[in-house]
Amino acid sequence: MQLPRNNFKHALGAGERQIGLWSAMCSSIGTEIIGYSGFDWILLDMEHSPNELPGIVAQLQVLNASQSSAIVRSPWNDMVMIKRILDVGAQSIMFPYIQNADEARLAVESTRYPGRGVRGVAAGSRASNYGRVKDYLVKASEEICVLLQVETGEAIEELENIAAVDGVNGIFIGPADLSASIGHLGNPNHEDVQAAIKGVAETLARLGMPSGILAVDEDVARRYIEWGYKFVAIGTDTGLLAEAADNLCTRFKS
What is the DSSP string of 172-203? Predict the structure, then answer.
């Protein structure tokens, strides 16, 4: 049995733009519904939503039947959590709050087996189709995608050093945390924040490192794409549901 191909990683490496959706509903049915919408990738959030591993497994299972690649955002840059996320079959992992090159190296090493990293070895996990992918331990890293979140002013100052770490496949900007860190809490559209976001895109493009970002406003998302962001989440499942429900209710009660 062959190691599953990580379509998202290979598309990103080829310079293809990837349009995604953020998922925080912790629902396999909800994930299944959006999985058939045609997004290139769907992020399953464990940092700012109550997703736990059994739920992540169910959501990975339904995304396997769709055309959308799964990305799992870990709650922290923690080797134990990363080991477990990988063992249940996630191939693309987003690491929050990376501040420097040392933290970036730890993230990469958490996804690699000894000799190249610190990932614990399990021969019969879901990641290897319960031991059926015979060369999984040797080839796993070929299909693992490491995405790092840069979301503070301090991290942006270290951006080039972070991007230079071997094994990093993409860097994702967190506009909300970035705006808070530079004195504009709750206002990611402030001109200082937007200037920083544009500067990151330019720097990463110069370095040949794919850049990613989340925008919940369509016009803002298109602006980020124009600036060169390569993997862009253009909304959230909770936001879509809330907006549709509010609008329907308002139309009938107004």
Answer: EE-HHHHHHHTT-TT-TTSHHHHHHHHHHHHH
